[in-house]
Model the fold of this input.
Amino acid sequence: MSFQERTTIIGLIVSLCVIYFLTTTMYVPLRAEQGAELGGLSGQAYLLFKIILGAIIGSIVLTIVSVIVQAIVTGDEDPSTLVDERDRAIEVYGDRIGYGITGAFFMYGVAGLAFLGWDASWFLLVMAYGFSIGSLVGCVLRLVRHFRGY
Amino acid sequence: MVATSVTNSIRRLRFDADEMTQKTLAEKVGVTRQTIVAIEKAKYAPSLELAFLIAQVFEKPLEEVFHFNRDTD
Done:
């Protein structure tokens, strides 16, 4: 398994964790109309900030751990972290799909604000879901391309 | 409708070159083994630069390594 394939799997795991935390810590209270317990929009943004920070740190830690595990399993003291032109092409493909999905969620959020009487908390949540679901789908499609060859 | 594809003789050339492994070829041209596998199966068309690098490894002209097929329906 190449470095980029492992990185994609890590991205997928992190995206799933982010969606889980968004759902349990933000969606469920908002759905139960207990948004005030989150501390309003500012409190919700602070929570989101912590989730994003956790995702970044989690990605870095998992990447380091995966390189160490590969070194132990294969006995290779200097495991390759090479990213080549095919990896980059696959990454661009996944990013493009991910951006499309994020854009669709943004339009949904704007429509919610404009026509459905949403407050800003819901818009923020929809945007957070947009980024994480876009990332998740991008990772899945990248993984499919990696395993199919291109 | 015009369909195009790039095929290659890398597998045969590797065999002729003392059964060079995909990993060795990948290291010589600076890509992953998975990319060599994808190129051999004609699932991925390499960049011109990578194609020239691969041809250089086998000391063959580009057209002996890669073949361009243009099928018109």
In short: The longest helix of chain A spans residues 40-74. Residues 3-148 of chain A form one domain. The interface with chain B takes residues 2-5, 80, 82, 84-87, 146, 148-150 of chain A (CB under 8 Å). Chain A has one domain: 3-148.
